[in-house]
Design a protein that fits this description.
α4 runs parallel beside α8 and α5 crosses α9. This protein is α+β, with helices and mostly antiparallel strands and 269 residues long. A hairpin with a 3-residue loop joins β8 and β9. The protein folds into two domains: 114 residues, Class II aldolase/adducin N-terminal domain (L-fuculose-1-phosphate Aldolase, 3-Layer(aba) Sandwich), CATH 3.40.225; 155 residues, L-fuculose-1-phosphate Aldolase (3-Layer(aba) Sandwich), CATH 3.40.225.10. The chain contains ten helices and nine strands. The termini are far apart. The radius of gyration is 19 Å and the shape is elongated. 38% of the residues lie in helices and 17% in strands. Strands 2-5-4-3-1-6-9-8-7 form a nine-stranded mixed sheet, sandwiched between helices.
């Protein structure tokens, strides 16, 4: 039987959350990540038996039977590399869509992140938009947080400000960013609102809190957030200064054409 700790997805999850902590995006137990797994692949690791059943507090019937690796509630990302089985878990959504069947992890009797509703609702939205999207990532990047205090929360204007900060932004997130005003975290309400935003694009800013990102794998999703955070950092460094030069809309169109991407409709003048 293969060792789950040597599984490609386990190694990648450990590397990713460790890097997220090193970037300063996930202080204390802040942030969470969920990765959709191949259920058949889990059989190679003997992960078929339900260790215990954990109520989810909401219903996700369309995900019944699907398995996810999810960071644990109250767990520090800095500790994942030292004890993955304590800080991570693999769950399978039960047939009733309301319970999670624990297949591995949370060895101290813990459970998945309190943001699981937002994650699974967003998985439903992103899988409908792109069946290859398998990752939902939430973290608290400093500059995105800061930008949400000083910039209008209009999604179009927020996106345009980010696109102008760095040439690669149009290439990496041509679908732009969505923005939610402050809402109470860990609730179904913010999960529903986030999932609705995720229908249109892969990034949703939670004002005064952080960001949600989605992607096809952990690298892509990490890079997506990394690029937005760098753009926000540049914005915060120059926001108080007179801007003498910028990337114009015709130049943003030129970038999009050259790299074969399509800007979000209506976001360029």
């Amino acid at each position: 039987m293969k060792d789950i700790l040597n599984a490609r997805f386990t190694v990648e999850m450990i590397r990713t959350v460790t890097n997220m902590y090193a970037h300063g995006w996930d202080e204390r137990n802040g942030g969470n990540v969920s990765l959709l797994l191949d259920a058949a692949e889990l059989e190679d690791y003997g992960l078929v038996k339900t260790l215990r059943t954990i109520p989810m507090g909401f219903s996700a019937p369309s995900l019944a039977g699907k398995a996810f690796m999810v960071t644990g509630t109250g767990k520090y990302f800095k500790n994942v590399q030292y004890d993955p089985e304590l800080n991570l878990g693999i769950i399978r959504i039960a047939r009733n869509g309301c319970d999670a069947e624990l297949l591995w992890g949370y060895s101290d009797g813990g459970k998945f992140t309190s943001e699981l509703p937002a994650h699974l609702m967003s998985h439903v939205s992103r899988l409908a938009a792109d069946p290859k999207n398998r990752v939902i990532m939430h973290c608290h990047p400093n500059n995105i947080l800061a930008m949400s205090f000083v910039h209008k929360l209009d999604e179009r204007e927020f996106t345009r400000s980010l696109w102008r900060m760095c040439t690669e932004c149009m290439v990496v997130f041509p679908d732009g960013v969505s923005v939610l005003p402050w809402m109470l975290c860990g609730t179904n309400e913010i999960g529903i609102a986030t999932a609705e935003k995720m229908r249109a694009n892969r990034l949703t800013v939670w004002a005064q809190h952080g960001i949600y990102g989605a992607g096809r794998d952990l690298d892509e999703t990490f890079g997506l957030i990394e690029t937005v955070e760098k753009a926000a950092e540049i914005y915060m460094k120059i926001a108080h200064l007179p801007v003498l030069n910028t990337i114009r809309d015709d130049e943003l169109r030129l970038i999009a054409k050259h790299f074969g991407v399509t800007p979000r409709d209506g976001y360029l003048d």
